[in-house]
Design a protein that fits this description.
By secondary structure, the chain is mostly helical. It has four domains: about 1-125, no CATH class; about 130-260; about 395-505, Single alpha-helices involved in coiled-coils or other helix-helix interfaces; about 525-690, P-loop containing nucleotide triphosphate hydrolases (Rossmann fold, 3-Layer(aba) Sandwich), CATH 3.40.50. The chain contains 27 helices and five strands. Strand 3, helix 26 and strand 4 form a beta-alpha-beta unit.
Length: about 700
Amino acid sequence: MEREKEKEANNSSVSFAVIHKDIVKLLDFIEKLNDGCIQIPVLNMDQIEELTSELTFVSAFFHQYYYFDSEGCNAESMSCISIAIHDLVQSIFRRSGVHMLIKLKHHNVLQLLENIKSYISSHRYAESSHMTMTEDRLVELLDVIVMYLRYLPKCCSKLFLSSMTQYELLENVCGNVRDFHGLKINGCVEYETIEYVLPQLQLMAQRVVNFCLTLLDYRLKERDELDISQFNSKLANLLVEIIPVELEVMHICSTNLIASKSAEVGCFIKKLQEASPGILRESLVHLQQHMVNAITPSTSLGNIHVMIEFLLIILTDVPKDVIRHDKLFVLLARVGALIREVAILVRNLEENSMDEDNVHETSSASQNFLENIELLKEDLQHVFLKAAANSSQLCFPMSDGPLFMTLLLRNLNDLLNSNAYSVALIKEEIGRVKEDLECIRSFFGKVEQELNRDLWARVLDVAYEAEHAINSILARDYGLLHLIFLLPDTVEKIKRVKKEVQEKISKKKSVIFTNCPNKPVENTSSIAGKIIVGFEEEIEWIIRKLTRGPTQIDVVSIVGMPGIGKTTLAYRVYNDKSVVGHFDVRAWCTVDQERNEKKLLQKIFNQVTGLKGNFIEDGIENDVADKLRKQLFGKRYLIVLDDLWDTATWDELTRPLYTIPSEFQKWSRIILTNRKKEVALHGKCHSDPLDI
């Protein structure tokens, strides 16, 4: 009798349509368990969660192996398991309540899991781009992938704490690919148009389903926190593999489908256009992080980083209505094509990083990126961008021009010494601005400023415009318009003003401002001693916070838009006699876009210890943070962190300070200037941020 049943089972078959309905029912049942729609008195929450994971693992296994083994050499084994899955689902809906759950818990699921594990151990799965798949199965697989990706965060929430953004990117890419393939199924796109990309779609589907199955396997084995890093690594590698498929879809749409009269194609392209900026931006950020973690720094890699910064500026400004609407998708497709080239080159660098035969080819390709930046800049100016607002409406908003000019030149010098890739994109323009402003400044002593008030006012206006444009590009705040229109325009205006100054003012002396000393210093005109008009109350408030208040360490934050006078205000307070005499040591560190926290700590350490001169990056000691902590131990210190942009840099720079016991840094203070309120609130100790 048993042999007859076994033979009958082996000869039986369950159609794909039936199994698919079973899987949908199974997932619906799982979601109801998660949402509490099904009350099961005999199981607690942990048991329900465990059962949920087991059932999901069963369905994911089916989709991983069924497509590739059900008709091959493993067809018989797979058929038996598929029948068991069908019987399992039927048992859920034939029974109810306690009886159904007891049967599931103690027989069906556990037995099926054992069979599946045995199958996996004896039938090694290997993905292949050459393995063919019927069109119907690819459609179903792409559909179920979207369904799994939507569900998995509910099942394995702990794994997603640090990588939800990347996971959402994965969801968006898979959703777009599914809809793109649907165009062909519905007859909106010719087979020949997408034939070459179909193997990539199939391979992507295999990889994503394998990722889902692996994720559920982690959940069932209940491993420790190490699995979170493993999960992040697997997700990162998966994105590197499948993002090129999304870029290929964009390429096909922009070259072959953009002129289609099909309403369905038009709807898809519109949806793709809306989703693409976010997908492309996140893919660039992910690619940038992958490069930092996986590839040894080199000149070629630096050029790639510069290209990525340029593309990020474009994508960040897409939602700001600065691009001509009729040209938007063409621009996005062009950006996508460049990202595709970047991804290919990064993959080559990773695979052949030690292969000398590929060094020249890689170097040439990365150099082409810099040329492509210039070509795209031209097209952005003449084809893609709307007209920019005239920067001449910006006027210098403060009264202390000499102090502003001194601080601006010091900041420009710091930027030129920075290794930040965002700075590298405009380093040539920064150098020209600095050189011309230094020349102009050498003509204007106190007397010349009084005798040529209108000309001096124009100098300050164009200098302020330059600062505003540079800061906007680095902050990606309408950075594209400033990069393409306003900064080049401002550079030319400074050049014209310089020529006018040289013609009108007799040069009696030559004072060239070179690298600023380690600490901000008072010059002979005592510009730091002047009261900044309109900030008298703020100055008094900050001085009180520095010299009075709690005995514990405190942070005084100055928050405001670029160019409003945050640095000038901090500089005035920093050099106030009552402040200078109150602290044992002082240090000033301009952070800006510098991403090297160790280098910034070295700057602070040099000022605290009185070391002078520049230092090379290779000369920075690994234990500089610990040395800084020892130098500040037991002292009353004041440290200015000027123009700090993000919370991560704040955490790195202040970590050595907060390891000092509070009783050994009494009355110490930190002044923080930044443009983001959230950074100030993140660093807050006792005093509220000052908004100006």
